[in-house]
C-alpha cells in the first residue's frame, strides 16, 4: 500500500528555516517524480516544487532561491528545505507522488507550517 | 507561466443535479489537465487525469473532457458525498499551476 507521511512542520519566526520530511512506503521515491504542494489557510492549492526521477528540480517563482527539494534514497524520504521564511509561506504542505509526470496520484496528510513572530 | 482559470468559483446545487465546472488555460496544454476533489481538512484526491481518464476507484458519474485550452468536469448526478471543492491542474509545463477552485455547496 502506498503511503506518504509528512513531518517537520511547526511555528517558526520570519527569516527562519525549517525542513519538512515526507516518508514514503509502498513504492520507491527515487524511481518517481515527487512534488510539494501547499495550501494557505482558507485558500486554494499552490504548486511548490517537483523533483524528477533523474534528479532535476523545479520551483514556483514564489519560493525559488529559498526552498530546496531533495530526497534520501536510503531512507525513501523526500525533503523540502525552507529558508528565509515569510508570513506568506504559512500553509499546510503536502507531499505527493507524481505519476510519470502527468498527475499527483497519492498525497500525504499534510503538515502545517506557521510563520509568525 | 501558464494560468488556469476555473468557473464558477462557487456553485449551489441539489442532490441528483448535473453539474459542470469549466477550466481554461492561458495557452494550449494539450491534454495535460487533471481534476482533484478536496474536502475540508483532507488532502486532495485525484479524480481525472489526462483531461478525460477516470482514476481507478472514482465513480463513473464523474467525467472530464476538453483539450488545448478549454476543459470541463461534469458530475452527472450529484451525490451527498460530492459536495467539496474541485481544482483543475495543468501538468504541461513547470511551474505547474492549479485553478483557484470551485466550491460545490448544497442548495
Any overview of this molecule?
The complex is a heterodimer of chains A (117) and B (107). Helices cover 0% and strands 55% of the residues of chain A. Chain A contains no helices and eleven strands. Chain A has strands at 3-7, 10-12, 18-25, 33-39, 45-51, 57-59, 67-72, 77-82, 91-99, 103-107, 111-115. In chain A, the strands form two sheets. In chain A, strands 2, 4, 5, 6, 9, 10 and 11 form a seven-stranded mixed β-sheet that branches. Chain A has a four-stranded antiparallel β-sheet with strand order 1-3-8-7, with no helix packed on it. Chain A is globular. The N and C termini of chain A lie far apart (40 Å). The mean pLDDT of chain A is 97. Chain B is mainly β and 107 residues long. Helices cover 0% and strands 50% of the residues of chain B. Chain B has no helices and eleven strands. In chain B, the strands form two sheets. In chain B, strands 2, 4, 5, 6, 9, 10 and 11 form a seven-stranded mixed β-sheet that branches. In chain B, strands 1-3-8-7 form a four-stranded antiparallel β-sheet, with no helix packed on it. The relative contact order of chain B is 0.34. The mean pLDDT of chain B is 97. The chains are: A mainly beta (117), B mainly beta (107). Chains A and B meet through strand 5, strand 9 and strand 10 of A and strand 4, strand 5, strand 9 and strand 10 of B.
